Amino acid sequence: MTTQGLERVIAGERALEVEQVRKVFVRRDRKKGEKRTRFGRRKKEHVTALEGIDLRVSRGKVFGVLGPNGSGKSTLIRLVSTLLLPDAGAIRVFGHDIAKDPFAVKRMINRVSVDAAFFKKFSPIENLMYAARLYGLEAKQARAKMREIMKRLGLEEESFDQPMEHMSRGMQQKVAVARGFLTSPILLLLDEPTTGLDPHSKRDVQGFVREIRETHDATVLLTTHDMEEADRLCHQIAIIDRGRIVALDTPEGLKALVPSEDGAATTLEDVFIKLTGHEFEDEEASK
């Protein structure tokens, strides 16, 4: 796609459209005493991860997705990133259908996941340079940019050339965030980007998300278990439970759904518990 063509797409379309999306996984039960078919095969269980999901994300906004563990948040991110295809419905990124035109979509997006993979023997610079080459970035400019991003995220310069295996999980997660920002995507998919980070590091990442959105006109789709993070960053939030959207509004609009008790201000956690029936459970605590 030419630069002019990309500019025309960005200017004329929503960043993300999700229409009546359904995703079902097939799982074989391996429990002791399980029932089998007459041919000795394990019986299949169909698990619906997402059902009837409808979303519209405007360009330049941060859109949050909240939900209990197993609600379908990460499945949605994987669908938008073209790692999975929907069983029904359609997903379009700046007008490009993820099933019909996945290569165009991949050029516009990048994904940061809580389970980001690295070459652990390589340093952050080597890992980021590998990503830069995959995206065709010029080496000298990429090297300068990756150093700038990592400094902005609070990584110490002496760690840039150390093996990733010697870094804490929080520091590795910062490198994953830096890798996501490196290619200047116009749609950034952040799947639990601050999990495992200390409060100061969380603020570094959150501040950089705002900066990228404001200075690079990027759109962000964010899943998080941090309610304060969602309240602080998101223009709109969808709450998903059992694969369905149970509420979608601005943070203030969602908080208006739940009356305050004892004069205390309603929080997003109050809304989450009220709408899903779940106590909030941190991803780390659930492992």
Number of strands: 10
Total tally of structural domains: 1
Shape: globular
Largest sheet: 6 strands, mixed
Strand order in the largest sheet: 6-7-8-3-9-10
What can you tell me about this protein's structure?
This protein is of the alpha/beta class. It has a single domain (about 5-30, about 45-275), classed as Rossmann fold (3-Layer(aba) Sandwich). It is about 35% helix and about 25% strand. The strands form 2 sheets. It has a 6-stranded mixed beta sheet with strand order 6-7-8-3-9-10, with helices on both faces. Strand 9 (about 235-240) and strand 10 form a beta hairpin. Helix 4 packs across helix 5 (about 140-150) and helix 4 packs parallel to helix 6 (about 170-180). The chain is globular, with a radius of gyration of 20 Å.
Summarize the model shown.
This protein is an alpha/beta fold and 287 residues long.
Features:
single chain, alpha/beta, Rossmann fold, 4-stranded antiparallel β-sheet, 36% helix, globular
Which helices and strands appear, and what pairs or packs with what?
Blueprint: H1 3-12, E1 16-28, E2 44-57, E3 62-66, H2 73-80, E4 88-93, E5 96-97, H3 102-108, E6 109-113, H4 124-134, H5 139-152, H6 169-182, E7 187-191, H7 199-216, E8 219-223, H8 227-233, E9 236-241, E10 244-249, H9 251-255, H10 268-276
Parallel strand pairs: 3-8, 3-9, 6-7, 7-8
Antiparallel strand pairs: 1-2, 1-4, 4-5, 9-10
Helix pairs in contact: 4-5, 4-6, 5-6
